[in-house]
Please model this.
Amino acid sequence: MFQCCWGYIDEIDYNQAIYFSCRILPLTSIVKSSRNKIFSTRFNLTFGICRVLFRFIYPGFKEKLVMRKLLSGLSFMAAILLMPLLNAQTARLSIDASKSGAKIDRNLFGQFAENLGHGLYEGIWVGPDSPIPNTRGIRKDVVAALRELKVPNVRWPGGCFADEYHWRKGVGPAAGRPATLNSTWGGVIDTNAFGTDEFMDFIQQIGSQPYLATNVASGTPQEAAEWLEYMTAAAPTALEKERAANGHPEPYKIGMMGIGNESWSCGGDMTVDYYLSQLKIYSHFVRNMNPAQQEKNQMLKIAVGPGFPETEWTEAVMKAWQHHDWSWNFDGLSVHWYTTPGGWPLSEPSTNFGVNDYDKTLKSTLFMDDFLRKQEEVMDRYDPQKKVALVVDEWGGWYAALPGTNKDFLLQQNSLRDAILASLNLNIFARHADRVRGANIAQMINVIQSMILTDKEKMVVTPTYYVFKMYVPFQDATFIPVDFDPGSYHHDGITLPRVDAIAAKDANGKLWLEITNLDPEKPLSIDAEIAGLTAKAAKGETLTAPAVDSINTFAVPSAVVPKPITASVKDGKLTLTVEPKSVTVLSLE
Ligand code: AHR
Model:
């Protein structure tokens, strides 16, 4: 009908209208036929019939007036349809590949697997007799998915659970292991079937490194020292023989050891002075005995730091560190910072939310930058050479538990919002890479912001998983500064940057660029000036989905998956358009 009626406008308007309609409307007998002769024949015929019909039915028909109104109506509709494209903003980035910053430590991409809910049991461990395909009790599907992420380290067994864990209950023949209660997380029975040797098996299967958290609050230095001896002794001590008898003659390598967890809260509610006295004892007596880790590849000892923006705890621990002697030391200070939009008790849903919740969540997550800066300022005063690493060993978007699930199991869905949140945090860590040399997202499977969700034999990977996969090239790459104006978008009283970006050079000299478009509605044109490197093209992947709350489910596992993207690079200028609410990683070729 519209096509037909356009025939009534005068000659100039008619040409404009046809041009307009061909460009904007998918109605498209016109569009399709405009490429051949059928067009003029068909159009003229329709045009003529309409004209005769209207004159016959309604002799007083004001052709021009009606047609102008129709045209303005159509223009309005077209403007609405084209709004996102018309509104595409441009972000100008400038990258000089000859400049370089700190190494983006691969340990920034660490994971956290606490004995909590279905994180370990069912998520990783199904037991050797399970019908779910497994290797020595460990799920094959989960291992295969995690191998893709090149997980640098896994923190275990907690979290708060670490301070109630007694390692002896989790070694030796399965039948002899006592059932205990997981009092921290729901008071459920813990069979202790997944103990130290099973964890180490899992670590080896996924090709990672262990990051152990020792029990400082309800354990003793002796218990922790013996745990380390069991794992790392090469000389024939009783514990070395016990490990060998359990099937593991070779000592394990331990990447990192945390001395306590949140000792100011669930880890013993200690004052900082009390914690420092424990830290000194554990740091001295809990030794890694593996001969391969004495000179090189030493185990890093991580002290407890704050989980709040105030800096008194950091001040006291760093001041003590500045005066440490030969008998004690630590290599990193742990901090915990979660994104909890709406605060405590957790009320923010992880599914079926809207753009307001998305904005609120991203606003909240960007506080990570300030949080780190404040801690770093204190650390810089006591350690200007940045010997002590800041290790964000718990972070992520933490929302209300899924309705109908055990609240203590911290099970939540994972949406496109979490993918954007993950990229923003990883970018913040990369920008702080001179001090922030470790981070562990909470948590790996079925808990908080996870990589993987499982339900019996089913498994699905989350949008956050894909972000970690896309960021693999940034592991151990050299940070390259990106100059850009982040711009801003405003929505319902919240203002957020429109764009975020980082760049890095990998060991082969290849330049990688990440661009996050935070705007949930508008695409973004990118103009990136690249100096210090000759490139002809760029290619990579982009991750987005129809809605901010789009999720992958067992029934629809591919709602949020990355797709390939290419961009042109001409005369040192890369141009591309990134979709709304998207994460894009490109390499320059
Ligand atoms: O990740 C869940 C819990 O959050 C951890 O057990 C604890 O360390 C933190 O408070």
In short: The two ends are 50 Å apart (CA to CA). Residues 114, 158-160, 261-262, 336, 394, 442-443, 448 surround alpha-L-arabinofuranose (CB under 6 Å). Confidence is low (pLDDT under 50) at residues 1-48. The first strand starts at residue 89 and ends at 96.
